[in-house]
Write the structure tokens for this entry.
Amino acid sequence: MNATMIRTRKLTRHFVVKKEKVEAVRDLDLHIESGEMVALLGPNGAGKSTTLRMLTTLLSPTSGTAEVAGYDVTTNQRGVRGRIGYIGQGNGAAHSQRGRDELVSQGRAYGMSVAAARARAAELISSLDLEGVADRIVSSLSGGQRRRLDIAMGLIHAPDLLFLDEPSTGLDPQNRANLQEHIHRLHAEHGTTIVLTTHYLEEADHLAERVIVIDHGRVIADDTPARLKADHAGDRIMLTFDHEDDARRGVAHSLGIAAPAHVEQDGARVLIEADGGAQLTPKLLLSLDGAGITVNSVEVARPTLDDVFLKLTGRSLREDAAIATPQSAITTSQENAA
Amino acid sequence: MSTNLITDTATVFSRELRPVLRNPFSVIFTMVQPLFFLALFAPLLPDGAGDESTLQWFIPGIVVMSCLFGTSATGSNLLYEIQTGSHERMLVSPLSRPALIMGRALKEIVPMFAQAAIIVVVTIPFGFRLHLAGAIIGLLILSVFCLGLGALSYTLALASKNQEWMFWAVQQTLIFPLLLLAGMLLPLDGGPGWLRALSRFNPLTYVVDAERALFSGEIATAAVAGGVVAAVAVAVVGLLIGTRAMRRA
């Protein structure tokens, strides 16, 4: 079962944009085993999609090698193509066609007989809740229905290895949850190896067993979501006091209790980053109360992958917070992480 | 079941054809312009459309025009599929690259046959005389031309995938000079020497001349041979550069 599914060695891709060389992917060494569920996480332009396009034969590497499902992506493209499924950022089914027709022709493209392709199409239509819309023209389907049809297209030949490029971009939260459920089931029930790219942290956190964080074309972290969070970011305890004076005393007091923590004061508020925040908080509150410092409110948050990304790169992954964090804050947190 | 160039081409061909079969009226939409030329231009020809020999001369040109308009625009379908993502999905599949261009281009032959049949049927009441054997050979030659032109249209689509306007700019810029220089609407015999010289470099001229001979029942003629050579040349060039473009896509 633990056979190698993907192995890349120094995989590199350059683009020339306005006469300047852009290194989209640099010396990427990846090893993914059969049955893994991996998310490539990174901001837009990090090199995730370029990596995926090289692994699926859509783009040839500038240098380095990649072996996918037992075949080399440069020397045996047909071999790779026959073994993998790919769900791109766009719609696999043409808008002018009917969904079921596209599923059958997709099956034919992978060498299935007409009868086998029809049977498999019917099976996928049913399991992806597409019965009502499969015989309608694709352009009349809603975004969520089209995305489920895309999944069906990618699964027609029951591939052992499935690539998904930004699967839930543009979907509303409900459709996103529904899609993630389908992907999760596919992995759980069929043991399909899944490699997906995403810039949604929740998606990587929720779906993947292994998260590979990519930034500027390089891997900067590679572990389970839980380990990444444990290693790179602590729980966050936010204490709010009535007065700034209390907060100042609170900082001094807190440092005594949560020794290795990173403590930061901002007006009447104090932020403490530490492991085991849920256990630490009651102790902290009792002790502060004992010292006669009144805490107005408290908030405890588990670390997110965004915190991890922030620690690793100094930048937030969220689009609405894409502004770089001041350099001093990064240094502090890195010192604390070390 | 294993796949090869022929099964792959059949897969792409039948996929392309399916929307046409699901909506046969689409065949008529793409031939609206040739039908207008037939209805509104033919009566202006020197001898008038009532004259049998004028119709015999004009109709084969309209059949070629219908093929030219429909087939040269077919790349826009691919352009749309590039934009929406389904072309990428096909590129990831094991379908052979030549099949991706050949299957698509071959499909153009089907609406071409249907449109030719419609043109012939609507003009017979006005005195057009059909020489069936010649017409069928004519349409087979036109099929070969169609295959090449379709491949060229898809090549243009692949080349303009990042700027859609370029596809239409090139297609619209080329289509009328090609059509006029082939003597499709008016005979070039009375035209100036430079115009006739230019028309000899237009492969479409030879195809139109061959169609005229064949639709009049003249089969074993030099014009027909010229049409065959021109159609085969367009098909070979179209498929070669089309396959190359698809491999690089």
